Amino acid sequence: MDTPANTDARLTELEIKASYAEDLLDQLNQTIYRQQQQIDLLLREVMGLRQQLPEGSAPVLRNPRDELPPHY
């Protein structure tokens, strides 16, 4: 049978674990929030770049091997 001291120790251990889990959840939520802000910014930048292209123009596909490095 559990003694009151053993029960208190187990309860304290559970409270500590719950506190760590809550802290981790807060950190993960902050990370997700920052990532969503970055995604939104990137989407706005892509939309701005798309608007700069002339209408009806096809994207230009270039082969990186055709371009010389700047030191040549």
Q: What does the average pLDDT come to?
A: 90
Secondary structure: helix percent: 55-70%
Number of H/I helices: 1
Largest β sheet strand count, sense and barrel closure: none
Low-confidence stretches: none
Number of strands: 0
Quote the beta fraction: under 5%
Based on secondary structure, the structural category is: mainly alpha
Cα-based radius of gyration, to the nearest Å: 28 Å
Helix-strand pattern? H
Oligomer kind: single chain
| Apparent shape | elongated
Cα(first) to Cα(last) distance is 82 Å
Short descriptors:
0% strand; mainly alpha; 72 residues; 1 helix
Description:
By secondary structure, the protein is mainly alpha-helical. The chain has one helix and no strands.
In a few lines, what is going on in this structure?
The protein is an all-alpha fold and 72 residues long. The chain has one helix and no strands.
Topology (SSEs and partners):
Elements: H1 4-52
